[in-house]
């Protein structure tokens, strides 16, 4: 558990950058709760 | 056969600022939901004239008016450094002005859905007759036109949508059904315009490839549009509809979809059919997307820039059996973003580049250029979407460092050498790798490049069916000549059989 423990996360991903599911994996064991995750395409 | 020849290619743009102003999704939805806002009142002041679109360096790079080396040498920003000697026609295709494109849309309408005003139709006919790819047969499809009052009445009383030139109503798109939303004018306009763009590119492709339309065997279309009715919303089929207008009477066709990964997947589908002998040849084609016009217009207006997203993009590529004459697309080392690949940039880039390289025993340095998502950066950067081709090249360079194929300090040199500056409009499927096929084949024919990789990536999650995205890639290189049709003689086959029999007999001892 790090400094994100107990925090709530909103994850905004981008297809050609870092997508939402990739960020979800990163924060899986952080103790934070992902309350919203999305990937968008701006092109 | 595991490779097919790329015999020809065509790339065209349709400069359509007024279709964008009224029916680009961003202004259209804003007008519907919020009325005449400040953005909508400002947008017309930012539109580019036809001459400006022609003299815009990325557009010239797209139609083959300049080489990519010449493009790299153009001073930036391109919108402030217009090319003085730019022409309508390039090596690969043309930039068609909006009035002529409305005429082409009418030519492609087989259900009397498009009505043009008589005087306008006559004016457009005089212009279209000068286009070298518009034959008399095709031009004969243009209607003589309707009286202005009939068009006005159709708009006022029958839900038709007006078509504009210089702010004046010059025609309309009629409704295809009383209650079926799939056949309402907005959808029909989007679809017929995409079909018309596809037709224009196929006509240029036939000319560029010196092949008659009757010789075409199959057509695969790969735009992002959906043609159908309320019982089957995207039943299709754009490919056959395009082939019909282009005079490809011996061809059939079908559509392949996959958002921006559609064209690369369509290339693979078409190449597989040609390589197997199922088709004698195959055209891969896509027209543009009206909804994506001025998609980032709000940011361009806010930052005082020209509204650059004013062109529909389209392309067509002809695949034939590999006879040693043309650059080839390889089918034995395709990049595939599998369901289980995951979403991390590292995993996706690895699946699309490293894995196919490994199949051929190649290193990252063995590829001259990686073409992924070739959006013009001048369009995407002001909207906060970054320089997309640069971002992709950086990811490939980072992977090359991880695989210990280049030093970290050499990353940016790798990006500069192996990446590309984007030159395609933000038309979804259009920028995804395929705009480089023409330039790459020319460079391979001229001996300037040995091998390139075309990469397409699609945002499947936009359709809310899956959270996944997609990706696919393939190599183009010089034909080795060993795949040529009929290259294996009967004696060689006999020898191969004898070798196998001899191995079997050894194993039985």
What does this structure look like?
The complex is a heterodimer of chains A (about 45) and B (about 500). With about 45 residues, chain A is α+β, with helices and mostly antiparallel strands. Chain A has one domain. Helix content of chain A is about 15%, strand content about 35%. The radius of gyration of chain A is 11 Å and the shape is elongated. Chain B folds into two domains: about 325 residues, no CATH class; about 150 residues, Peroxisomal Thiolase, Chain A, domain 1, CATH 3.40.47. In chain B, about 40% of the residues lie in helices and about 15% in strands. Chain B contains 20 helices and 14 strands. In chain B, β6, α12 and β7 form a beta-alpha-beta unit. In chain B, α11 crosses α12. Chains A and B meet through α1 of A and α17 of B.
How would the blueprint of this fold be written?
The complex is a heterodimer of chains A (43) and B (509).
Chain A (H helix, E strand, L loop, with lengths): L7 E7 L5 H7 L6 E8 L3
Parallel strand pairs in A: 1-2
Chain B lengths: L2 E13 L1 H7 L1 H10 L3 H5 L7 H5 L2 H7 L4 H5 L22 E2 L1 H10 L6 E3 L1 H11 L7 H4 L8 H10 L3 E5 L2 E6 L11 H24 L9 E4 L16 H8 L6 E4 L6 H15 L5 E5 L10 H6 L8 E11 L6 E3 L4 E2 L8 H15 L9 E4 L4 H4 L7 H15 L8 H8 L16 H11 L5 E8 L11 E8 L12 H19 L1
Parallel strand pairs in B: 1-2, 6-7, 6-8, 12-13
Antiparallel strand pairs in B: 1-9, 1-10, 3-5, 4-5, 8-9, 10-14, 11-14, 13-14
Helix pairs in contact in B: 1-2, 7-8, 7-11, 11-12, 15-17, 17-18
Task: Give structural attributes.
heterodimer, A: 43 residues, 1 helix, B: 509 residues, alpha/beta, Peroxisomal Thiolase, Chain A, domain 1, three-stranded antiparallel β-sheet, 14 strands, 39% helix, globular
Gist of the model:
Chain A has 43 residues and is α+β, with helices and mostly antiparallel strands. Chain A has 1 helix and 2 strands, in the order E-H-E.
């Amino acid at each position: 558990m790090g400094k994100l423990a107990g925090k709530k996360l909103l994850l905004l991903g981008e297809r050609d950058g870092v997508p939402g599911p990739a960020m979800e994996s990163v924060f899986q064991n952080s103790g934070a709760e992902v309350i919203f995750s999305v990937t968008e395409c701006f092109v | 056969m595991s490779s097919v020849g790329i015999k020809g290619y065509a790339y065209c743009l349709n400069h359509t600022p007024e279709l964008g102003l009224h029916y680009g999704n961003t202004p259209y939805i804003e007008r519907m939901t919020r009325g005449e806002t400040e953005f909508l009142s400002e947008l017309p002041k930012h539109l580019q004239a036809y001459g400006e679109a022609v003299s815009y360096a990325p557009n010239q790079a797209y139609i083959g008016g300049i080489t990519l080396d010449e493009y790299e040498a153009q001073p930036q920003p391109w919108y402030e450094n217009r090319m003085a000697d730019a022409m309508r026609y390039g090596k690969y295709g043309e930039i068609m002005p909006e009035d002529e494109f409305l005429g082409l849309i009418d030519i492609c309408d087989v259900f009397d859905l498009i009505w043009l005003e008589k005087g306008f139709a006559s004016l457009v006919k005089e212009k279209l007759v000068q286009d070298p790819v518009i034959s008399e047969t095709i031009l004969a499809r243009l209607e003589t036109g309707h009286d202005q009052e009939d068009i006005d009445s159709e708009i006022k009383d029958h839900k038709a949508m007006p078509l504009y030139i210089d702010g004046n109503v010059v025609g309309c798109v009629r409704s295809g059904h009383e209650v079926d939303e799939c056949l309402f004018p907005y959808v029909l306009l989007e679809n017929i315009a995409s079909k018309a763009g596809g037709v224009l590119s196929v006509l240029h492709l036939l000319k560029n490839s010196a092949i008659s339309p009757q010789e075409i065997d199959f057509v695969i279309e790969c735009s992002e549009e959906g043609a159908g009715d309320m019982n089957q919303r995207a039943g299709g089929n754009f490919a056959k509809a395009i082939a019909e207008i282009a005079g490809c009477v011996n061809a059939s066709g079908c559509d392949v979809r996959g958002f921006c990964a559609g064209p690369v997947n369509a290339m693979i589908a078409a190449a597989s059919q040609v390589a197997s002998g199922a088709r004698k040849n195959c055209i891969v084609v896509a027209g543009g997307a009206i909804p994506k016009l001025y998609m980032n217009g709000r940011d361009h207006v806010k930052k005082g820039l020209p509204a650059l997203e004013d062109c529909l993009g389209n392309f067509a590529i002809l695949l034939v059996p590999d006879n040693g004459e043309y650059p080839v697309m390889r089918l034995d080392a395709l990049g595939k973003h599998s369901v289980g690949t995951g979403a991390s940039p590292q995993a996706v880039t690895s699946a699309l580049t490293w894995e196919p390289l490994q199949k051929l025993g190649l290193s990252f340095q063995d590829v001259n250029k990686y073409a992924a998502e070739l959006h013009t950066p001048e369009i995407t950067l002001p909207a906060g979407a970054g320089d997309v081709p640069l971002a992709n090249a950086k990811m490939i360079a980072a992977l090359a460092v991880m695989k210990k194929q280049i030093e970290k300090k050499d990353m940016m040199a790798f990006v500069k050498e192996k990446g590309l500056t984007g030159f395609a409009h933000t038309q979804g499927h259009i920028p995804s790798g395929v705009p480089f096929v023409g330039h790459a084949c020319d460079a391979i024919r001229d001996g300037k490049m040995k091998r390139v990789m075309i990469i397409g990536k699609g945002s499947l999650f936009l359709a809310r069916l899956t959270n996944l995205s997609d990706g696919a890639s393939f190599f183009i290189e010089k034909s080795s000549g060993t795949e040529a049709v009929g290259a294996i003689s009967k004696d060689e086959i006999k020898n191969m059989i004898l070798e196998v029999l001899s191995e079997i007999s050894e194993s039985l001892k």
